[in-house]
Amino acid sequence: MSSLPPLISDLALILIVASVTTIVFKRLKQPLVLGYILAGFLAGPNMPYTPSVVDYQTIDVWSEIGVIFLMFSLGLEFSFKKILKGGASPIIAACIIMACMWGMGCGAGYLLGWSTINCMFVGGMLAMSSTTIIYKAFNDLGLMTRHFAVKVMSVLILEDILGIVVMVVLSAVAASNKFQGTELVFSLLKLGFFLLVWFVVGMWAVPSFLHRNRSFINKETLMIVSIGLCFLMVVVADSVGYSTALGAFMMGSIMAETVDAERIDSAISSIKDLFGAIFFVSVGMMVSPADLVAHWLPIIVLVCTILIGQAVFGTMGYLLSGSSRSDALMSGFSMAQIGEFAFIIAGLGQSLGVTDGFLMPVVVATSIITTFLTPYMIKIAERINASWRADEKSTSTAEKGEARRHKRQEIKQKKSPLSIYIRKLLLQTVVYGSLSVAVIVLLFVSLLLICRHIFGHWVGNAVCGFLVLLLLAPLLRPIVMKSNSSREANFLHRKGTFWRLFVETTIVVRFILVTSVVYYVLNYLSPFRWYWQVAAAVFIVYLIIRSKWIRRVSMKMEATFVENLTRRENSGPAYARQLRGSDLHIARLTLPAGSTWSGKTLAQLRIGGRNGVHVAAIVRDHHRENVPGGASMLFPNDILEVVGDDESIERFSQRMNSEVQPMLQEDADMMELQCMKVGENSQLKGMLIRESGIRNEYRCLVVGFEDARGNMHVAGADHKITVGEKLWFAGSREQLSRLNTLLHP
Asked: Is the pTM of the predicted complex or chain greater than 0.85?
C-alpha cells in the first residue's frame, strides 16, 4: 500500500487551520493576513501542542510561488508605466525613506553593541518595507481604491528595485570591507539595461500576441498563457541574477497595459489567493517563542525603530515628494513593517559568513510583529487624519487641481525646444542602443555556435553576421534618422547658423555611434584588417539609412509598440489623463453577483447625487461603454470605473457592497420530485392540466402520470386529471406542500 506524500498531508493541515483562523479573524473584523500568520504558528515546528508540518522545504517552494503570484497581481494593478507617470515624486520619497531608515537601522545596531557589518546589514533590512504584506493589508482593509495607495505601491516597487542595489553594496562591503563605487555604478547600469530591454521587448511582443489571438483565448487559455509568461520572466530574471519577485512584477506590468488586464486578474485570482495564503502561513511558521524570549531586547528596539522611523521619516518623505498631509500620513504609517527582502538580505549575510547567527531569528520575529501591527498602524493614521480632515477641506479640491494644472503648465512652458530635442535624442539612443546590445549578446551566445556547427567557422561567422545585421538594421536606423525632421529640430535650424551646426553635429555623432556598433560585429566575426572593417561598417550604415524597406519595418515596429503601450488607455475615458495629479482619480469597482442594483439604470440609482461620484465607464466582458447615460443598465459582475475623491469613492464602494440580496435558502428553494395521488374531494379532478393552474399559480410542473401497471407516461397539457390517479410533480418543497393540500383537501 502506497503512503500518502507529505505534501498532501501538509497542505491539508495548513488549509484546515488557515480556514479556521481566517473565519475567526473575519468575524473579529481583522485583516486576514493576521489569521494566516497565526495559522502558520499553530502548524509550525514551534507549537508543540498541535500537529506540525513535515516537509518544510516543499512549503517554502510553495510560499515562493505565492510571492510570484502576489507580485504578478501587483504588476497588473500598478505597472511601471503608472510609476513613470508619477514623475520624480515616488523616486524622491523612496530615496528619502530608504536613506533615513538605513541610518536608523545602523544606529539601532550600534546602540545594541553589534559589529559594523551587522549594523550595515540590519540597516539594509530596515530600509525596505514589505510589498506583499502591504498589498494584502490594503486589500483586506478595502484601501486599494484610495488615492494614497497608488503612491505607496509605486514607492514600494521602487524600493524593491533599489533593494537589488542595496544587496550589491552589502556584498561589496562584506567582500572587501570598503565601498566600491565603480561596482555600484556598474550594477545600476546593468539593472537599468535589463529593465529597459524587458519592458520594451515585452511591451512589443506580449500585447500583440494576445491581441492577434484574442478570438482563440478563453478564460482557461488566458490563465495558462498569462501564468506561463509570468514564470518565463521569473526564470529570465533569476538567470541574470535578479529576484523572482522582480521578474513576476515586470510581466505583470507589461500585461497591465493590455485590454485583457482585468480578465487576467480575474482568471488567476483564485490561484493567487491559494499560494498567497501559503506564503503568509510560511511566515507564521518562523515565529519562535524561544527566540522572542532569548532576543527580546533587540526585537523590541528594532520594532520601535521601524514603527517610529516609518511614521516620522516615511511621512516626511511623502511630504517632501509633494503629497498632501493626509496622504503622507497614511502612506508613512502603512509602511511600518519589513518583510521578504529583509529575509533575503539576512540570508545573504549568512551565506557570505559575515553576520552573526542571531540576526536571522531577530529579523524574522521583528517582521512578524510589525506585520501584525501594520493594520493597526493604518487605523491609527486614519484616526489622526480624521482630526485633520477639516483643515484639508479648507482649500477646495477644485482650487488644488487648478493650482497643480497651472504649475504643470508653467513647467511645460519653461522647457525650451533645445532641452526637448536633447531629451528625445537621449531617449531614442538609450532605448534603441540597449535593444541593439541585447540582440548582439543574445545572437552571439546562441546563434553563432549553431552557425559554426552547421557551416563551419568562417562561413558560419558570415551567416551569423548577416542575420545579426539584418535584425539590427531596424533598431540602428532610428538612432541616426529619428527626430531629424522634428518640430524642435526645424526650430533650431531656423534659429541661426550655430544651432544648425549643432543639429548637424548630433547627426554625425549618432552616425559614428551606429557605425561603431556595426564595426564591433564585423570585427568580432571577420578576419580582415580594421580599415576594411571601418569602410564596410560605413557602407552598411549608409545602406541601412537609405533602405525604404528597413524604414518601413522600423516604423511598423515603433507603431506597434506605441499602440500596445496606449491601447488600454485609449479604450478608457478620454478625460482620464486630466485627472492625474489632482485629488480626483478613477477607481475600478466590481458589482457584486447578488447586487440589488442588477437590472436598474444609473438614473434609478442616482449614483452621482447620493455618493458624489461619476460613472466614467461600464466594462462588461469584452465590451466597454464609455461615459454611460442615465438609461444604461447594470448587471452582476460589471466593472464600474468611477471618478471621485477618496471619501466619495469609499462611500460609494460601501453602499454598492452593502446593497446585496441575502443568500438563498437552498433547502427551501431546491427543486424536488414527488408523487401524489388525486383524492376524491380534490378541486382538480376532471380538469385538464392546462386549466388547473398548477404551473402558473403553484409554480409546479406536472412531469407525468402512472398507469395501472406502474409505468410512467408523459402528461401533456390536454391530459385530464382523474380521481385515484398518481401524478408526478416537480417543484420546491413549499410549493409542493401547497399543491398537496389542493389534491387532498
From this structure: no
